[in-house]
Amino acid sequence: MSEKIRFHLDESVNSRIAKALEAMGIDITVSKAVKLRGTPDEKQWEYATREGRVLITHDDDFLRIASRNPDHPGLIYCKQEGHSLGAIIMECASVHGNNSVEEMRGRVEFI
After folding, report:
1. Within 13 Å of residue 73, how many CA atoms lie on the same side as its CB?
2. Is the residue at 1 inside a domain?
3. Sign of the C-alpha dihedral, residues 61, 67, 21, 92?
4. What does DSSP assign to residue 23?
5. Pairing, β 28-30 against β 7-9
6. What domain range includes position 51?
7. Which of 27, 54, 94, 95 pairs as cysteine with 74 (C-beta 3.0–4.6 A)?
8. Count of domains for the chain
């Protein structure tokens, strides 16, 4: 069995998303819990990359960071406008359930 995707939510993402994904059995960290709240985006990126976690964000600065650093665990980018929390949760769960760590490497998923 292949290794399961693990996520990291940056501080721009509603914490209820993390709680719902965690309730589904998905390994997830949040900025506050790993003492990254208020740190620059590059620190969030370094943490996610070092820990092998797909970063979930609403912050489009991470799209630029990903384009400069193509060897990363993956990025899920979603706009808050027009998306319910439930839709974002289900899309993230779908990415988790339908992709391997290897398939997400270097990939940006727009939801």
Report:
1. 22
2. no
3. positive
4. H
5. parallel
6. 7-110
7. 54
8. 1
